[in-house]
Amino acid sequence: MTDTIGMANLRVDPAVPVLTSGQSLTGWRRELCVQLLGESEARIYLRAVESPSMKADELRQAILFHRVGASFADLQGCVAAIGEPLEHLARTAVRQKPSKDNLFAAVTYDRSAWEHVVQGIERWQRRPISGPPGAPTT
Questions:
Q1: What is the pLDDT of residues 63-117, one digit of tens each?
Q2: Assigned domain for 84 exists
């Protein structure tokens, strides 16, 4: 299922991959991913990975990623909170055809825009949570 939440160029997949406590103990982690589709569009989703992703491998697919905490569960809330930097990142992305000069990246993008997205993700994870006991924390 894909939702669009007030931002025409950001497609958010709200599915949250489940990590068991055993997986967490053996190094599994979640990553927030932004797949730059070009033409000011991006797909945002969470994935579970057994080992850290390799930046060069992911850039071939135009995917940027950032590790998030095990309790991270509110992707739509996070995207709403950092919508402006995400939209800016999507607008700056340009898909390109592989060439002998550029074999490893399927996209160019404004790196400072990505840094603003990462900072926003970090702020979102560290924000104070309020609510009744037992309520979801993120």
A1: 999 999 878 889 999 999 999 999 999 999 888 776 776 666 678 889 999 999 9
A2: yes
The amino acid at residue 95 is R
Task: Tell me the whole-structure pTM to 2 decimals.
Answer: 0.80
Q: Which residues, 6+ apart, have CB-to-CB distance to 102 below 8 Å?
A: 96
The answer to whether residue 39 sits within a structural domain is yes
In a domain? residue 135: no
Question: How far is 86 from 137, CA to CA, in rounded Å?
Answer: 23
Q: Which amino acid is residue 38, in one-letter code?
A: G
Q: Can you tell me whether residue 92 is helix, strand or coil?
A: helix
Q: Positive or negative CA dihedral for 63, 55, 119, 33?
A: positive
Tokens representing 70 are: 């095990």
Q: Is 58 helix (H, G, I), strand (E, B) or coil?
A: helix
Coil vs helix vs strand at 75: helix
Total domains in the chain come to 1
List strand residue ranges (DSSP E) for the chain, in order.
10-12, 29-38, 41-49, 63-68, 94-95, 107-108
